Amino acid sequence: MKKAKIPMRKCIATQTLVPKKELVRIVRTPEGDIFIDDTGKKSGRGAYLKLDEEAILKAKKKHMLSNHLKADVPDSIYDALLERVRL
């Protein structure tokens, strides 16, 4: 019997391939809204980040989400991600 294929995605901060379930997806909708996509299936341009404090702070410092999503990402998104890590 075949093993189930595990979907892999690249973290924009660490540039490492990680199983999709270990990452969080941030999405920019066609309307321009930016939010954290918990389902990983919302339509729009997405970027994946590791749920790691160092990765999130690096992405914030270098404006990586803004560059990947081609839109200004509010600090509240980074704050929400950091909250998830600290729980």
From TrEMBL:
Q: What SUPFAM superfamilies does the record tag this protein with?
A: YlxR-like
CDD domains according to UniProt: YlxR
Gene3D superfamilies per the UniProt record, alphabetical: YlxR-like
The YlxR domain sits at: 9-81
Q: What is this protein called?
A: YlxR domain-containing protein
Species of origin reads Aureibacillus halotolerans
